[in-house]
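Morning F.,

Quick status update on the modeling queue. The single chain you submitted on Monday has been processed. Sequence for confirmation:
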Amino acid sequence: MLSDIERKVLRVIGNYSAGRRRTPTIDELCIKTGRDRGGIMTILDALTKEEYIEWKRSKPDNMTVLEAWERKELHNRTRPKK
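Structure tokens below.
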């Protein structure tokens, strides 16, 4: 499950790429979220580990969106029998 800021950054990236046909730069993410560059880099690391985006610290402005919305998590409940 994503934190609020991770979810916000993911939505900004998804909406930005859908509307402008490119992903936002780190500086644009800083402006949109009010976070500093280090905070954005940490959030992008977390989104990469969760496989929502493809991104490398060595090329910070180059990212690929894999999933633009948070996944629905299944709880440890058994599925109803049909």
